[in-house]
Write a structure and sequence with these properties.
With 174 residues, the protein is of the alpha/beta class. It has one domain: TIM Barrel, CATH 3.20.20. Helix content is 32%, strand content 20%. It contains 6 helices and 7 strands; from the N terminus they run βαβαβαβββαβαα. The strands form 2 sheets. A 5-stranded parallel beta sheet has the order 1-2-3-4-7. Strands 5-6 form a two-stranded antiparallel sheet. The model has no long low-confidence stretch (mean pLDDT 92).
Length: 174
C-alpha cells in the first residue's frame, strides 16, 4: 500500500511529525509514503498562514530519506494560481521533488476555506464555473509542473451549499 498525500506539522495541514507518520505507516503495512507539504504564496491575501520554507522541509525530509523498511518520497502540494507561475517555476527549478500535487485552494485571490466572499452574489453554478475556469487556466499554464491535480472538490467542500455533489453535466451549459 502506498500513501501519496501526507502533510506533516511542517505545513499548516499536518498534525504529526515525519517520524510519527513513518512509524504509523510501518505499523499499518504501508510500503511507500510521499510527504506533500503545502506550498502556497499568500501575497495580497488576508491570512495568518505562511509560505512553506522549502529548504527547511527538504532538510527535515533528508533526515528520514534512507529508511530501510519504508520507501519515502519528497513531494509537495503546490497551490497553483495564474499570476504566480514564475515564482512557482523558479521554486521548482531549485528543488527536485519525487511527486507534485497541483491544487487550487486559492482561486481568484481568495482561499474559499477562509474567505467566503468568493461565493457572495453568485449562484452555486456560477461559483463552480468560476473555480473550474481557473483550474483549467492553471492546467494550461503549468504544463509540466505537477503530476496530479488534487482536490477538485475544493469548491464543493467549502461552498456552504446544501447539495454536496458536483454534476458536471449541469455545468456544461455555459
Amino acid at each position: 500500500m502506498k500513501d501519496c498525500h501526507v502533510h506533516t506539522k511542517i505545513s499548516h495541514d499536518g498534525i504529526s511529525t515525519i517520524d510519527e507518520y513513518i512509524n504509523v505507516a510501518k505499523e499499518k503495512g504501508v510500503d511507500e509514503i510521499t510527504f506533500t507539504e503545502h506550498y502556497h504564496i499568500y501575497d495580497g491575501l488576508k491570512t495568518k498562514l505562511n509560505t512553506l520554507d522549502v529548504e527547511y522541509y527538504k532538510n527535515q525530509y533528508l533526515k528520514h530519506k534512507d529508511d530501510k523498511k519504508l520507501k519515502t518520497n519528497f513531494g509537495i502540494e503546490i497551490g497553483l494560481q495564474p499570476d504566480i507561475s514564475k515564482q512557482i517555476k523558479n521554486m521548482l527549478e531549485k528543488y527536485k521533488f519525487d511527486f507534485i500535487i497541483g491544487s487550487s485552494h486559492i482561486t481568484c485571490k481568495k482561499d474559499m476555506s477562509i474567505d467566503k466572499s468568493f461565493f457572495e452574489g453568485i449562484t452555486r453554478r456560477e461559483a463552480y464555473l468560476k473555480y473550474f475556469k481557473e483550474v483549467l487556466e492553471n492546467i494550461k499554464l503549468y504544463t509540466e509542473e505537477f503530476d496530479v491535480y488534487g482536490h477538485l472538490d475544493y469548491v464543493v467542500r467549502y461552498g456552504g451549499y446544501d447539495i454536496k455533489k458536483l454534476n458536471m453535466m449541469n455545468l456544461k451549459k455555459y
